[in-house]
Design a protein that fits this description.
Blueprint: H1 6-29, H2 31-43, H3 45-49, H4 56-64, H5 68-141, H6 145-175, H7 178-189, H8 193-209, H9 225-232, H10 235-265, H11 272-280, H12 282-298
């Protein structure tokens, strides 16, 4: 077999195995699946076991032919077994529901904290880019030497802080993919969560890739810091970064919140007060959806 077909074969085998696993788990581990399995076994019992299954009338006839002691033994055994199964199933279901709710809340909390920090870093970098462009424009127009030196000194003092925030933002654009590895099963099991997360992480990666604009540095023995500052300003890259932020801002802020809301909805139900507050904010919701539509269209 050609080496080029090995990834294709592995991918096909993976999807086949996962699909079979899901079907088997449903047929043997789910109440409705077990019912379907039993009905199928009963229907094909003659070809499987060599003799047909009892009909309802035949089963009743067989029960009537048993002694009273045997009927009591069968009834008591059925009550014991069914009671155990019901108790076990309900306890297991409650435990799984509680664990799943805790995992959903944990994932929502981590997503919220992560993208809140991302939004703060992006905003700080955007403010610095805007300030740098405005400062360069003011310096070129101003004839006051002291004002020029003040603007340059202020931008130099901000440079180190923005450099740290830029490094943190770039690092987070890599760390964002850890969510997929950590919560892959959860994200895939809930509609729209994985797709929203993928779009948000892609938008974050695009914004982080545009942060590598030049940050002016001060030199100790510089006799003309104003000229040095202007030479280090690349307005094209700064404007490119700002336009990238404008294009992806809604995707970074709205879609992670949407994914978190979907995860939280399984724990916090939507009630009448939720509906009332939603109607009160219908205009804000409309504006948000319109901005999201434009952001997706431009991405």
């Amino acid at each position: 077999m050609s080496q080029n077909y090995i990834p294709f074969v592995k991918t096909a085998c993976f999807y086949v195995c996962v699909s079979l696993g899901v079907c088997i788990r449903f047929l043997l581990g789910n109440l409705y699946g077990v019912l379907i399995t039993m009905l199928a076994v009963r229907y094909f019992s003659e070809s499987i076991f060599g003799y047909p299954a009892y009909s309802f009338s035949e089963l009743m006839e067989w029960l009537r032919s048993l002694s009273d002691e045997m009927k009591v033994a069968i009834a008591s055994s059925l009550v014991t077994v069914i009671g155990f199964l019901v108790a076990y199933a309900s306890a297991t279901a409650n435990w799984k529901s509680q664990v799943l709710a805790n995992i959903k809340l944990q994932a929502w909390g981590e997503l919220n904290a992560f993208f809140t920090e991302v939004g703060s870093l992006v905003t700080d970098c955007e403010i610095y880019a805007t300030e740098s462009i405005e400062a360069a424009s003011k310096i070129r127009k101003s004839k006051d030497k002291h004002e020029k030196l003040f603007l340059v000194s202020y931008q130099y003092s901000r440079g180190q802080e923005i450099e740290l925030k830029r490094k943190r933002l770039v690092a987070m654009s890599i760390q964002v993919h850890q969510f997929t590895g950590k919560y892959a099963n959860l994200f895939f099991s809930v509609p729209k969560v994985q797709s929203n997360f993928d779009i948000a992480s892609q938008a974050l990666t695009e914004v982080a890739s545009k942060t590598w604009f030049n940050i002016p540095l001060a030199y100790a023995e510089d006799t003309d810091p104003v000229t040095t500052f202007l030479k280090q300003i690349d307005e094209d890259k700064l404007n490119d970064f700002k336009s990238t932020v404008d294009k992806n801002r809604m995707l970074i802020s709205f879609l992670p919140g949407s994914a978190g809301g979907i995860l939280q909805s399984g724990v916090v139900p939507f009630n009448g007060f939720s509906l009332l507050n939603m109607y009160r904010r219908s205009k804000e919701l409309h504006n948000a959806f319109e901005e999201l539509r434009k952001a997706k269209q431009n991405s």
